[in-house]
Write a structure and sequence with these properties.
Layout (H helix, E strand, L loop, with lengths): L3 H21 L16 E8 L6 E2 L15 E2 L11 E9 L4 E16 L5 E3 L2 E3 L5 E21 L2 E19 L4 E22 L2 E17 L2 E10 L1
């Protein structure tokens, strides 16, 4: 018993040392995505600083249909000033390569000014030197599907299919008239996104989407837009 006791202690000590040493070694996994890509639901917020350089025009309707309205400059004619607005973004990650995205930007301008020229809105004249209270309420929604064609630990390259839904309400009020116009329209778009992680917690992302609707398809209706974001 006396001779076996030291041997037993030595065996126990070696066992403890071996266990401690093995716990310190953690091999790097072959698939180690960046920290920023390990999520199921992503919420984002931002401040948007657009210019108030907006052109507004609304012709007559009903019995006044066909009468063109003035191309109203929101800054010069209505006195609108640059503002900042909140931007809400939500991303739902269905799988490694598939994502659903939503964005909402509420845009609201309220201003009182005295136009320096006569303007026509909804076939109604707003004459010179009469105060006009103007409201521009613009709700911008974005619904998108993203498919990441390339998905690696360093980032991804993806395809974006989206619809922007625009809801615009414009109202002009003066002591002599009170008119408003409203327009709602979905706008489809296609584009792409590239994200690169310079560090596991820091990425650089670029998005480009766009759409063109030629006026040769439907006479009198046409337009295009390009949306480029980098962050």
């Amino acid at each position: 018993a006396i001779r076996l006791y030291p041997v037993a202690c030595l065996t126990l000590a070696l066992g403890l040392v071996a266990t401690t040493a093995s716990a310190q070694y953690k091999p790097r996994p072959l698939n180690d995505p960046a920290t920023g890509e390990q999520f199921h639901i992503e919420l984002g917020g931002a401040l948007w600083y657009p210019s108030a350089d907006i052109a507004i025009s609304s012709g007559g309707t009903g019995a006044l249909s066909g009468l063109a309205g003035t191309q109203i400059d929101a800054k010069t004619d209505l006195g609108l000033t640059d503002q900042h607005f909140k931007d809400l973004q939500v991303v739902l990650k269905l799988s490694k390569r598939n994502k659903l995205r939503f964005e909402y930007i509420p845009i609201l301008y309220n201003q009182s000014a005295t136009p320096q020229r006569t303007i026509v809105f909804n076939s109604i004249q707003y004459t010179v030197n009469i105060p006009v209270n103007s409201t521009l309420d613009w709700k911008a929604y974005r619904f998108a599907y993203e498919f990441d064609v390339v998905s690696r630990n360093w980032g991804f390259v993806g395809l974006i299919l989206e619809t922007k839904y625009t809801d615009v309400f414009v109202q002009l009020q003066s002591p002599l008239a009170n008119e408003f116009a409203e327009a709602k329209a979905p706008i489809p778009a296609i584009g792409g996104i590239v994200r690169y992680y310079v560090m596991p917690n820091i990425s650089v992302t670029g998005e480009l989407t766009g759409f063109k609707f030629p006026d040769t398809i439907v006479k009198g209706y046409g337009g295009h837009y390009v949306d480029f974001d980098i962050y």
